[in-house]
């Protein structure tokens, strides 16, 4: 009891759940510091690794460290030079009719095309930090433009009907790429010339202790509950083929959904098991070798739930 007989309530640390900032443990800080040095020296940095390991979050955190405006591009098959460099988007017309002197009627009409800078041109011209997320999803021919930027320091204005054939890259311009190695297969192998010019850092799944520390800091659950969930995920990941399986993203989803539905973090609870199957079932079924992947995945998840232990604080 507190002073005056009143019960003193100890509130858990208030966490802003909408805060998208990453939790920076020592290894993350070190990685960001090294990457910043590479950017400062003029080399583009490329984070590659399995899905959900935090590549995009890291790229954005690194970009923020440069304290320059950040431009974000998502790689996709449809992306083309017009999106990157810019395009004419229409016309403006100006008409002046001069009838001041009654007998004289003068009509002056001009039409101008409206040009809109593409995202890459804007970033290159103004020295922004460009984050090119999942760049291997774009066609290699689209990404070729980066070779001129990185090699010659110019952005060619292909087909832009502009008077200048190119724009010089602003000295403050920097580029951060992310990709998932699974997506290099097939046609994307031809991105090798570009990959050769990047400092590529592999971002793997963190061990369950690091993941638990991130979750307990980001979400309103205890360290031990977070640890129990990341252990469960790590156990399932072991069943998966290399570099696949559920990620930190799945752990975060389970915590968020359990909290929203008032489900306790308890492996023996049937609602918790159901939630885990919904969040993890499909992903686990795709990463294991089995003739009946869905049933096997469900069994593995239930087993991992039964093995789950939340140690007392
Ligand atoms: N250090 C961290 N601190 C807090 N949250 C993190 C951290 N790293 C990753 N996350 C969270 O994990 C989830 C996945 O991160 P992110 O989207 O950056 O991964 P990714 O590797 O880019 O995934 P994908 O390849 O699927 O695009 C996000 O919800 C992100 O907020």
Automatic annotation (TrEMBL):
Catalyzed chemical reaction(s): ATP + H2O = ADP + phosphate + H(+)
Domain AAA+ ATPase: 41-209
SUPFAM superfamilies: P-loop containing nucleoside triphosphate hydrolases
GO BP, sorted A to Z: gas vesicle organization
Subcellular compartments: Cytoplasm; Gas vesicle
Family according to the record: Belongs to the CbbQ/NirQ/NorQ/GpvN family.
Pfam families in alphabetical order: AAA_5
InterPro entries, sorted: AAA+_ATPase (IPR003593), ATPase_dyneun-rel_AAA (IPR011704), CbbQ/NirQ/NorQ/GpvN (IPR050764), CbxX/CfxQ (IPR000641), Gas-vesicle_GvpN (IPR013462), P-loop_NTPase (IPR027417)
Organism: Pseudobacillus wudalianchiensis
Any Gene Ontology CC annotation: cytoplasm
Name of the protein in its database record: Gas vesicle protein GvpN
GO MF annotation terms: ATP binding; ATP hydrolysis activity
NCBIfam families hit by this protein: gas_vesic_GvpN
Main location: cytoplasm
Keyword terms: ATP-binding, Cytoplasm, Gas vesicle, Hydrolase, Nucleotide-binding
Domain of life, source organism: Bacteria
């Amino acid at each position: 009891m507190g002073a005056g007989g009143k019960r003193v309530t100890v509130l858990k640390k208030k966490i802003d759940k909408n805060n998208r900032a990453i939790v920076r443990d020592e290894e993350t800080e070190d990685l960001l510091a090294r990457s910043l040095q590479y950017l400062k020296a003029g080399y583009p940095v490329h984070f590659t690794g399995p899905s959900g390991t935090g590549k995009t979050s890291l790229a954005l955190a690194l970009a923020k460290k440069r304290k320059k405006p950040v431009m974000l591009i998502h790689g996709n098959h449809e992306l083309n030079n017009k999106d990157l460099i810019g395009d004419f988007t229409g016309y403006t017309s100006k008409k002046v009719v001069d009838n001041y002197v009654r007998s004289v009627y003068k009509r002056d009409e001009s039409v101008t095309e409206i040009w809109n800078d593409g995202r890459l041109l804007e970033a290159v011209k103004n020295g922004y930090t460009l984050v090119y997320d999942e760049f291997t999803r774009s066609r290699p021919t689209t990404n070729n433009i980066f070779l001129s930027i990185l090699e010659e320091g110019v952005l060619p204005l292909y087909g832009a009907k502009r008077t200048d054939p190119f724009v010089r890259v602003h000295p403050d311009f920097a580029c951060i790429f992310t990709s998932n190695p699974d997506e290099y297969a097939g046609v994307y192998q031809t991105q090798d010339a570009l990959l050769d010019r990047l400092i590529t850092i592999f971002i793997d799944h963190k061990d369950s202790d690091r993941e638990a520390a991130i979750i307990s800091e980001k979400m309103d659950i205890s360290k031990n509950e977070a640890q129990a969930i990341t252990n469960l995920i790590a156990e399932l990941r072991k069943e998966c083929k290399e570099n696949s399986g559920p990620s930190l993203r799945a752990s975060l989803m389970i915590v968020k959904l359990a909290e929203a539905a008032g489900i306790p973090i308890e492996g023996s609870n049937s609602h918790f098991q159901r939630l885990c199957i919904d969040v993890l079932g499909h992903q686990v079924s795709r990463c294991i070798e089995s003739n009946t992947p869905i049933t096997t995945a469900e069994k593995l998840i239930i087993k991992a739930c039964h093995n789950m232990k939340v140690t007392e604080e």
